[in-house]
Every structure is written in structure tokens, then in C-alpha cells.
Recover the amino acids of this structure.
């Protein structure tokens, strides 16, 4: 089954790319954009039919590789 | 004294490091990332570069490569492990050093000489260096050191800050911070001070005609203490 994961920077962690995107959007007349936070999205195909098992495996993957918990949070969709 | 430099796909300072280590008397060997064991060594170096193309996060893929288990075992048994630039990023991703190197605050790749202040000399890396401030080279896009407030307090309390960015007089304040690193941190130790990760490249400062020799001071001291 396919498991989807989003990794984002924790609140309060500096996101220079997000800031640059926000400023560019403001410059393109999207004046009402006050903040952009950039993240990562993963589509993971796991050879496992049990949804709970697959998700708990993906959770391990998030903790060990996909996210660095010093600065990032992950969400399994 | 034997040293090992590990080569990852995308490492590009491995050869410079090999030249520097040999110049100051190390018997250096190059080790491929997919090997299972590190040959007998007194020092392991993780060199600079862009291991695995900086995919996912800088150093994250290299931090899980086959050779890393034996690097971690070596480090945990008190062996000297030095990570320069991408090597520093790999050390944080393996968990051997706290914190993480984020993208530079102003989104620019920085390539220039900087001054760093030695903050702790009670370790093999800086013990007998007479100078307090060294001129070294940095070249990175992700050198903005970050850690939680609790971690910062812990590394400060344990004397784990190795070097900080400063001016030629040793003022390590905000105007002399090139990349936004917390507390101007350019390099840190683990608690036992056998592991050092730092962004500046001492191996690029070993030639009096090309670069200056503050990197030479670093290697001369290191071989004397290994």
C-alpha cells in the first residue's frame, strides 16, 4: 500500500527558502501572503497489506531518516 | 600514526585531506563508504563535499551508509573522529554530535576565508596551538548551526563549543557571523572531546604560498597528540 508523509520545519525554526518564496510572492502582487513554510512530501510504496503495520513502519522511517527531529516534524497522512 | 579518510559518492575534499594528513606525518588510507570495516586507525576523517548530492538533508544518506556503523563504534570507544564541512553534517545526522547544520541564513553559498576563535584547548585537536584565533577557509551552503535551547545549554556547560566565527581580534559577535549559526558556532565536540565537527577547512590552509598556514598549526598539533 501507499503511505504519504509530509515533513515540515518545526514552528520557530528559521526557513530562509520559505521567506524568499513569501517575499517573491509579495513582489508578484500577492500582497496578502504573510508567511510561507516549505516542506517535503513523500509517497512511499510499502509491500504490506495491513495499514497499521505499514504506517508504523513508515513512522520508524520518519524517525530514523526522513525527518531530523531536531528541526522537523512529520505527519503520516 | 594511521588515519583513514572515508570517501562517499560526492565527497570532494577527500584528496585535499589525504595530502594534508600525509604532509604532517600521518600514514593515511582512503576507505570506501560501502566497506564494512575501517582498517586499524588512530584517526578517522569524514571529509567535505556533497555526499549523495546533499539529497534529503546534507549528510543524512551518508549518515546511514554501510561504513558508518564502524565509525560509530570507533567513536564510542574513544577513537578520534574529525568531520570537516559535509563531514560535520554527517556527524550530526548520525547523532554523534548534537544539533544540525541548516541552510545559511541569507541563502547564499559562502566561499571565503574567515577567522575562528578557539574556545576550548583541553582536547587533542587544539591542545598545544599557541594562537587563539585561526584564519581558515569556509565553503558551504548549509553551515548555519542550530540546536534546541536545552542542547545549547548542555554543550556550553560541557565546554563542547570548539570554535566560533570571529574577526582577526577574536570578537565572536553577530557582525562576524557569516551564516547565522547560533552563538557563531563553527565547530563542536562531543562530551568526551574525541569527536570534532567543524565547517572550516584546515586542509585548505597548509601552503604558505597559496593560503597561509593556520591549517598547518592544526595538523601539526593533531599528529603530536594522537
Amino acid at each position: 500500500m501507499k503511505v504519504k508523509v509530509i515533513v515540515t520545519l518545526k514552528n520557530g525554526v528559521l526557513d530562509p527558502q520559505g521567506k524568499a518564496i513569501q517575499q517573491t510572492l509579495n513582489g508578484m502582487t500577492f500582497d496578502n501572503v504573510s508567511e510561507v513554510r516549505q516542506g517535503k512530501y513523500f509517497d512511499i510504496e510499502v509491500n504490506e497489506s495491513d495499514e497499521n503495520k505499514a504506517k508504523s513502519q513508515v513512522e520508524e522511517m520518519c524517525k530514523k531518516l526522513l525527518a531530523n527531529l531536531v528541526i522537523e516534524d512529520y505527519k503520516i497522512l | 600514526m594511521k588515519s583513514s579518510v572515508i570517501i562517499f559518492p560526492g565527497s570532494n575534499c577527500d584528496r585535499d585531506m589525504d595530502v594534508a594528513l600525509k604532509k604532517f606525518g600521518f600514514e593515511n588510507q582512503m576507505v570506501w563508504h560501502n566497506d564494512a570495516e575501517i582498517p586499524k586507525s588512530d584517526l578517522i576523517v569524514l571529509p567535505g563535499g556533497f555526499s549523495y548530492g546533499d539529497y534529503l538533508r546534507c549528510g543524512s544518506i551518508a549518515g546511514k551508509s554501510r561504513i558508518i556503523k564502524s565509525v560509530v563504534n570507533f567513536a564510542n570507544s574513544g577513537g578520534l573522529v574529525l568531520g570537516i564541512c559535509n563531514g560535520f553534517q554527517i556527524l550530526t545526522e548520525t547523532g554523534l554530535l548534537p544539533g544540525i547544520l541548516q541552510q545559511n541564513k541569507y541563502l547564499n553559498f559562502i566561499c571565503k576565508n574567515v577567522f575562528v576563535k578557539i574556545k576550548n584547548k583541553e582536547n587533542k585537536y587544539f591542545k598545544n596551538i599557541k594562537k587563539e584565533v585561526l584564519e581558515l577557509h569556509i565553503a558551504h551552503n548549509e553551515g548555519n548551526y542550530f540546536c534546541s535551547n536545552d542542547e545549547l545549554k548542555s554543550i556550553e556547560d560541557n565546554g563542547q563549543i570548539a570554535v566560533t566565527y570571529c574577526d582577526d581580534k577574536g570578537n565572536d559577535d553577530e557582525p562576524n557571523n557569516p551564516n547565522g549559526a547560533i552563538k557563531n558556532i563553527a565547530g563542536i565536540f562531543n562530551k568526551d572531546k574525541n569527536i570534532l565537527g567543524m565547517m572550516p577547512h584546515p586542509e585548505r590552509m597548509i601552503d604558505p604560498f597559496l593560503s597561509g598556514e593556520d591549517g598547518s598549526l592544526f595538523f601539526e598539533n593533531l599528529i603530536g597528540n594522537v
Chain B touches chain A through 21 residues (CB under 8 Å).
